[in-house]
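step=predict obj=Solute-binding protein family 3/N-terminal domain-containing protein n=253
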Amino acid sequence: MALKKYCLTVFMVLFIASLSNAQSIPLATGEWIPYSSKTLSNYGDFTARVTVVFNAMGLRPEYRFYPWGRCFDSVEKGRVWAAFPYSYTNERAEKVWFSDALSCSKTVFFHYAAGNDSKQYHYNTLEDLKPYRIGGVTGYYYVPLFKKAGLSIDYVNKEIYAMEKLKLGRIDLMPVNELVGRHLIKTHFPDCIDKFKILDKPLTVNPLRLIVSKDYPGSKELLVKFNAALKTCIEKGLITVETCDGNYRDIDD
């Protein structure tokens, strides 16, 4: 009898543990203030929105903070269900799925006016930027856009490295999400905030989404549930998603 009770206890512990594990979904993100960060309340605005949706699904998100390259790699290889926030590109869509939009990103070109420098930058198409030295971050959504336009880009691994080059005059322009850029400037260059300028014409205004693994177990079904819960949260006013232009791609059949 004692052995039977012991076996039943072990079974119940393992069963409860399995339920707990099934309810925890791993997601990857990185440092991109104010959207996501280990240092922010609720891990940032975008992360907070993801949490609201998961609460509506009755699931628990398990957030893992990685470098951005590892975020995408973890999704592609099925080590996590999803990562965020990302903009849609055709190249990415060959490797991952995309959720519906949870937010909007306005990417602008920053430039630095040192001393009496009054240089003006104007463009209508990306091809107009060929005379300028432009910075960028490896793997970001705009890489194929710049390649198609024939631009020569000085790529680095982090936005702050490019902003430092901008301040030092090693590049002329740097595309950054406006909110992210202003945070970097305020944090790292507080004595020369007014010298960082923004071009009037934004590079893009795109929806921000989750990228979702095609190899994570039950991924497609989970994505369908996530999008349905997101729609419900929006309808109930729990989440407000800004309207912005951008591409959308349904889940592949």
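step=describe
Strands lie at 24-29, 60-65, 82-86, 97-98, 103-112, 134-137, 153-156, 174-177, 196-198, 204-212.
step=end
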